[in-house]
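Record type: monomer structure entry
Structure origin: computed from sequence
Chain ID: A
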Amino acid sequence: MASQVGAGRPLRQLEVESRTERAEVVVHQGEHAWRRRLIWTAAVVVVIVVGLLAFTGGFPASLTIDAPRPFNALNDWIIENQRTHPLFHYVLVPLKDGINNTVDLFVQVMSRMTWVGMTVAVGAIAGVLAGWRLAVGAAAGFFLIGVLGFWAGGLDTLALVLLSVIVALAIGIPMGILSARHPALEKVLRPVLDAMQTIPAFSYLVVVVLLFSIGAATAMVATVIFALPPAIRLTSLGIRHVPEDAIEAATAFGATERQVLRKVQLPLARPSIMLGVNQTIMMAFGIIVLAATVGYKGLGLSVYKALQGQKVGAALAAGLAIVSMAIVLDRVTYGWSQRDRKARGRPTVRIFGWTVSRRVAAGLGAALVVIAVVVGRQVLRQQDFPDAWVVAIAGPVDRGTDVMVRHLGGITTSITNVSVRFGLDPLKNLLLGLPWWMVCLGAAAGAYAAARRVPLAIASFLCIALIGFAGMWEAAMDTLSQVIVGVIVSVAIAIPLGIWAARSDRAQRAMRPVLDGMQTLPQFVYLVPVIALFHVGRVPGVVAALVYALPPCIRLTDLGIRQVPVDRVEAAVAFGATDNQLLRKVQLPLAKPSIMLGVNQTIMMVLSVVIIAGLIGGGGLGLLVLQGLNHDPGAGLVAGLCILLLAIVIDRITQALGQPGRRATANPLGRSSAAHPIGWLFGTSRARREAVSQGGDEVPGDFPDRKGEV
């Protein structure tokens, strides 16, 4: 029988096949996975117990350095020389004055247009760019800002958003073009953009305020820096994804490189570029709301003052105005990008059933704006929004909050006590009770287990250790404990909801508008409702963070399960797998890269909100940053750098966990293969995909093909 099976095949081939079969049998053995996990878990518990009992916890004071001192000395030098040193006299001061004057000019122009002219102008621009339905919605959104009583603050915020976005796009789009045309430049920019997207928005303000003091200039410079990455990356992505045959055809007809760029690449990349414009606007809007902490007037300042005074009604009213403006900006720019994608080259627009040229529509819109401005200035003679039309909701909201607190106060107090007693405090005490080197080794071990890269493990150890050397160990562990609790609860809610959405189209359709709205709101707004229920402290910050971080994990879990290859699902069903077995054994393992990307985004979003929760008594590094903005710039800068180090370690480890080929997979012939290698610190660029906001694009990475990899 053996001779019949091997007939006609050489002995070497039979040996290879035999080895292949044995290798596959070994790979398929998964009966002892839980045993290995229990052993490792027990080992970790033993190490923690030994660390708590046998060693002194925390970071020794003898190893810390006075890190804030050089920054405070730099701040003192800036104060002494800002009127005499050439750097300030000829560069920074004129730049600051120019920015302040330009922002004031924008505000003055929009104010002189009157509230009628501005409302019509917003509607006309939205109509030309995205259609008449969005025109009506945009005009209604700005009218609502006036009704809430924040017209002047809305103009201040809008002026800084427009100026910041113009500057960011003027820098980002050319850099994206250069990055797409020069791979060497793209390799240089990649780690820089990774770092810029890793740092929470709050940390940018600390660095910029050192050079520009407080005011509009600081807010605008920080906003431009924070909003640059999506403009650069999506412009580069769009140009690099232009079909090669289109470029070859243009070159064959004698087009120069500049003509290929202007006539082929930029038009075909326009949808991606417009998505970058949308993301730039939303990121700029998010940080400008935070600019209230550096003294810039606007909607954010109203929320900031209300939060400081614990006036929930006033904070909610200003928060609704912020939400209204954010939704208008997001929907109009997103509709503009979708219009170019769906109707590229169509020079017409439909207005109430009439099809007219886009140029005619723009002319009609301009005429309507002029008429509205004339009516506002000459007929109504009302520049600001009429006070008689303002609806004050602060009083009713405060009374409703009091009623809600009376009825729900016991529940929220119990939640707060349980969270602090059994979650935040034990975890914080555990992190502070362990010796510093053991925490650093834990970060290094996690990095190595995730990526199998020694340089990443060493970098993780050094980053965590530097936090201790800088004297921020206790504050960093406080922040880390809040992040861990927020991430655990957020992921525990998001992944089941994502699975439900993936298995039910009706559930996905119901969740989509809610998730769209949640992703549109700036971080700052989430602090308003939680402070009404939980007052101030760490718990409201964690609650706001976990709610803010839900959408990406839900959407990427849904996306990953839906993109599992159909043949894998059909094969499992054909072998008699139940729905639960299909989910546990096939869909979730194959969707792991997408799910881990969602977890990565959840962690970074939780960290960003936990940082700004210092505004409502969250403590940790966020409180030190806030104090640095007010009276201690050195400590604020060091805290900002520690936030960066902590964010880098968390981001790199979670990215490595989500890489489809992060582990070297045993080859049937004995060789090891490791696809998708990850960089050790700022290596592989972060997968900031449109799927987070739309849930429609494919997450990069090949699904495994060989047996046993599931």
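Annotation 1: DSSP finds 31 helices and four strands in the chain.
Annotation 2: The first helix runs from residue 2 to 5.
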